[in-house]
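Readers of this paper often ask what the protein records in our data store actually look like. Below, we set out a record of this kind in full and without editing:
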Amino acid sequence: MPSTPADEPALLTALRGERPARTPVWFMRQAGRSLPEYREARAGIAMLDACLDPALAAELTLQPVRRHGVDAAVFFSDIVVPVRQAGVPIDIRPGVGPVLDTPVRTVDDVAALPAPDPDLAAVAEGVRTAVAGLGGTPLLGFAGAPFTLACYLVEGGPSKDHLRTRTLMHADPSTWQALMAWAADVTGAFLRAQVAAGAAAVQLFDSWAGVLSAADYRAHVAPWSRRALAGVGVPAVHFAAQGGELLTELRDVLIDAAGDAAAGAVGIDHRVPLDEASRRLGGRTPVQGNIDPAMLAAPWPVLAEHVRDVLRRGRAAPGHVVNLGHGVPPTADPDVLSAIVRLVHQEGEQV
């Protein structure tokens, strides 16, 4: 049964474009190496093995909620999980990232990809277990956007400029479209599995879309992110790292996929002030962000004033979910994150 506004979690109220009594806050990568309990639980366990262990994934999802008191959990997984579970031999190498020994660069390579039907039973079980332990705190599902998945598949691993990927986009449009359709269907399946298991909202991460022009994004990427989000059925946050030039494009994907102008929020990295981001978005779209992760190591008075400034600027948007402008660095002090949560909850609607 849908929540009524009286008992609706603050996160969902903000994503609907309204102001809850308490400004919601969570952190990208909040379940991770900054937490000693995470390092202890993950000791000796490979990343993808941890993601596919339902009990462990649920525990890692819950840890930052217990410690920080954030207003949302984000399911512990990785963007390449559905690629691996679809049958593509991709792995995560410590200190490197996702690596594929045989990249996907030709029409024959794309044709050889397995059906985009990942085995997500372990993911669904992990989500159900996490939701059962969260009480009234909502769970965010997440997935990597089709473009980001395509980057790893084409490059064979991390890249600074994604030159091979962007070349394929322009040099062989039909192969590009087939690859992006595959990635969109894998991503969509990953999102829908998490929602079916109890996720109340989702976030689509486009880690590498910032390398694109707005024109290239609209023509070659947006249709596939729209396809991935279509039919998800819950509010979504659409985030692109270094995506300040793509904000209206990210918004339009959200609206087109859901058929609703209040379909969710656009995530803003730390480079664009939230009031300016809201102006670019037309003042009608909720925003998420955008504390600079580098400020986490600043003296508390400096960081606290930065958080207050983010809160003030966030009032330009109809709804605001406080977050970082990117993920929690491994070196972050967990006590500082907890202090940010307390500050946001105390002052979020007063600044």
